[in-house]
Amino acid sequence: MFLQARGLLAAALLLVGQSAVSKELSLKEVGQLPEAQVVARLPESHPTLLYAFAGRLFGAGRKDEGVMWFYAGQLRYRYHLVANPGLPPDGDPAVMASLNATLGQTIDEWAGGLPKGWTRAIDQALVWDDQFPNALTPKERHAAARRQVRSGIEKCAIKSGPKRLRSERSERAEALRTGKSSQGNGWRAKPESGLGLRRTFAV
Q1: DSSP assignment of 120-173, as one string?
Q2: Quick check: 126 and 120 in contact, CB under 8 A?
């Protein structure tokens, strides 16, 4: 699964391109640099690289940490999508959907057995995001999108659970496989208000 996700991440970075931020990590660096160096540069990097770091930790048996970084990546990717609703549907929206259907499914299946840990990981992701800058989607320029996404994820953690999350993920994975969505418009659908599972954690 992690080899599949790594190949997907490499293709994803070629598809979406890396931003013009000098401190942004490469996929190779995420896998090889000392962890402290990776963590220090993640705020300057594309969200796909947070997914990559999550996969590195999870694959090394540090599953709790991997879950936290996975949701930090989802959180920041979601900001990017909500703040830029005109993105090509076969670019970042499709990349996030694919990562969630591969790496995300593996992580969710494990996290689902530990509901308290799942909620704690989301809380930690929110704290990390609050404490560090976001080079791709600057907080001061996209305050409304940030509030919307953070509010949604907080409600998700309170009202939803891993079992529903896995169910929604399966639906989206099938939609990805068939190239269709429940709305019949592929990945072009606009984000829902807040951070509904069907458009974020399950996209």
Answers
A1: HHHHHHHHHHHHS--SSS-TTTSHHHHHHHHHHHHHHHHH--HHHHHHHHHHHH
A2: no
pLDDT of the residue at 200 = 35
What is the C-alpha end-to-end distance of the chain, expressed in Å? 18
Separation CA 31–CA 86 (nearest Å): 31
Domain-by-domain residue ranges, the chain?
2-199
Sign of the Cα pseudo-torsion (31, 135, 198, 126, in order): positive
If we measure between CA atoms, which residue out of 188, 197, 200, 199 comes closest to residue 85? 188
- Distance, CA of 191 to CA of 141 (rounded, Å): 19
How far are the Cα atoms of 19, 44, 52, 72, 141 from residue 132, in angstroms, in the given order? 18, 9, 19, 11, 15
pLDDT > 70: percent of the chain: 65
* CB burial of residue 119 (10 Å; 0-12, 13-18, 19+): middle
Q: How many residues belong to the chain?
A: 203
3-state secondary structure of 178: helix
- Cβ distance 51 to 70 under 8 Å? yes
Q: Mind listing the pLDDT tens digit for each residue in 165-201?
A: 555 555 655 555 555 443 332 322 233 333 333 233 3
